[in-house]
Amino acid sequence: MLGSAMSVSSGVSSIRRVAIFGGTHGNELTGVFLVKHWLKHAGEIARSGMEVRPFITNPNAVEKCVRYVDTDLNRVFDNQGLGLQNKVKIPYEITRAQEINSIFGPKGSKDAYDVILDLHNTTSKMGATLILEDSNDDFTIQMFHYIQKSMAPVHCSVLLIEHPKVKYATTRSIAKHPVGKLDKLQHTVRKHRYCDYVVLVY
Ligand SMILES: [Zn+2]
Predict the structure, then answer these.
(1) If you measure from the C-alpha of residue 10 to the centroid of ligand 1, how many angstroms do you get, rounded to a whole number?
(2) Residue 82 Cα, ligand 1 centroid: separation in angstroms?
């Protein structure tokens, strides 16, 4: 996936800026460990023609080893959270979301990072699972297919979430191509021309 700057036809511009998020939920330690590792060993994820930036998204929750301090960081990247002004005491994660949006966004703008991989853990028996937020995002679906082939024979599922309340408020959602993982089990399988994915049942 990160071999070099990627571009695909059909109107998708080159992928130049990639962020890897860990610690969105401070007690999910794989992402915390990996991001801290890559902050010290940047050469492992460096690729020519591309910025790859590891980032701890919720450092206060990571320090306490809790999911969040005031509110779930992975649910506040909507217009309400990102636009909240300092009239009342703002929850820590909303202040943090606004900082993250200013660094990696602004969400929905041409300046937003191209890809954000947000690393989570789950206690569900899912194995490695990639989360897709938009079934029309052909670039990300093809990238997932590449990741699945690269990981084989280890199985890697793809989970589609298109529930708007989740889709528009996740930490990774500020990227043009968000990639993440979510802790859900009920699903059905849907066929796609590049890779099959499972769809959440709400
Ligand atoms: Zn999580």
Answers:
(1) 33
(2) 20
